[in-house]
Amino acid sequence: MAKVMVVDDAYSDLQVMESILRSAGHEVVTYLDGEHLEEKIVVERPDVLLLDIVMPKRNGFDVLRGLRKDQRTKQTHVVVVSSKNQESDRLWGLKQGADEYLPKPFAR
């Protein structure tokens, strides 16, 4: 199965995503913020990154732009998972480099 990195400052959302992914047989690595995420991705080498947008310290759009500029991480498959669920938010996320955009809340 895939190795999935989940980054979300909302611990309850992080736990839900981790539980869903682990029950599907995936290996899961979690972080509560986006600080130094490029380095973490280089070390962990996830198949996919699930990335929240609204986070303290470093928001998801900033993280996403950083990933796409870094030669070591620019090919990382990124799914934005956000409570920002307007069509304009989805389009902006895709423009920033997201491969997919999944609005919260979600269920199994």
Task: Report on this structure.
With 108 residues, this protein is of the alpha/beta class. The chain has a single domain, classed as Rossmann fold. Helices cover 37% and strands 22% of the residues. The chain has helices at residues 11-23, 37-44, 60-69, 87-95, and strands at 3-7, 27-31, 48-51, 77-82, 100-103. Strands 2-1-3-4-5 form a five-stranded parallel beta sheet, sandwiched between helices. Strand 3 (48-51), helix 3 and strand 4 form a beta-alpha-beta unit. The protein is globular, with a radius of gyration of 13 Å.
According to DSSP, the number of beta strands is 5
Low-pLDDT runs of 5+ residues are: none
CATH topology: Rossmann fold
CATH superfamily: Response regulator
| Second-tier CATH architecture | 3-Layer(aba) Sandwich
Mean pLDDT comes to 93
In percent, how helical is the residue content?
Answer: 25-40%
Q: Percent of residues in beta strands? A: 15-25%
Shape: globular
What would you say about this model in short?
With 108 residues, the chain is of the alpha/beta class.
Which helices and strands occur, and which strands form pairs?
Blueprint: E1 3-7, H1 11-23, E2 27-31, H2 37-44, E3 48-51, H3 60-69, E4 77-82, H4 87-95, E5 100-103
List its salient traits.
108 residues; 5-stranded parallel β-sheet; Rossmann fold; alpha/beta; single chain; 37% helix
